[in-house]
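I have been asked to look over a protein record a colleague put together. This is what I was given:
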Amino acid sequence: MLNQQDTARYVRQTVLAQVGQEGQRRLADSTVLLVGCGSLGSAQAMLLARAGVGRLILADRDLLELHNLHGQILYDENDVRERLPKAEAAARRLRAINSAIRIEPVIADVTAANIAELAAQADLLVDGTDNFETRYLLNDAAVQAGKPWVYGGVLGAQGMVMPVRPGQGPCLRCLFAEPPQAGTVPTCDTFGVLNTAVSWVAALQVTEVLKLLLGKTDKEFKFYTLDIWRGSVTSAAAQRREDCECCAKHSFEFLDRGRSASSTVLCGRNAVQLTPERKTVLDFALLAERLSPLGRVAVSGLLLEFTCGERRLVVFSDGRVLVMGTTDTAEARSLVARYIGS
């Protein structure tokens, strides 16, 4: 039963026909894993905490930086000054928002080595990530575990959202069989992002989360595209592919660690090497154009060097990247996802 304080806190939600007292109890008994506590993840976490989801597991590998405050609405300048991990800063703020729920920060790089353990604790997974590698990993983990998850992405003023119900409808690989090659798709750092677009996408993702937790999902399987600058939202029917490697053939390539970039700490060099799973040929001219406004770029016939602050990325034409100035593989992955794409 909801106690008196809960009844007062959620009164404007429980009077909704879509929720009610029983629905609020269901939310209180639910656990959600949020992967990524950046722009999307911080907005998702705030909305879910205020909605009364009983347990939130927040997984993120990054530290806060000043440029995060533009779109990551849970944080403030004090968090940046303290150099807090995003997951810890988010947990502190959410506990102040709703002390009646459990908030569990996980300061870690979500990989094939730990995603199954994290997913096993949750009823549902939410995508707050900034790279394709982790999204396809989430898709594998959710489908293998038979747990729903909600995909979301945002770039510029546009976004995409799709709820995934394993065993019932399409998964991410039904629509996008393979992730794009590294360097072929702009990132938020190189292309930009409107903070209102982030909030819009996160709000739709959380709405889909609540529908799933309340057992009030749509009969149709939808893929949403949003453009907040134009004020448009469209939905298209998403179809399951009978030849899908993931949900049809149950081939979990990303979970099996064979489809993710390998990382190696280079002894004595204060550097991490990231090698993509798929061989690729990067367009240095295009990449240099994107990176030039953000730092110093130098290109030779064999490699591109990008320096931003204390970190230097040495990018080879086959997609391999040396991240100089750190031995932290999680930081190296974050930098490559931010500037090169995954």
Summary: The radius of gyration is 20 Å. Residues 195-214 form the longest helix (20 residues).
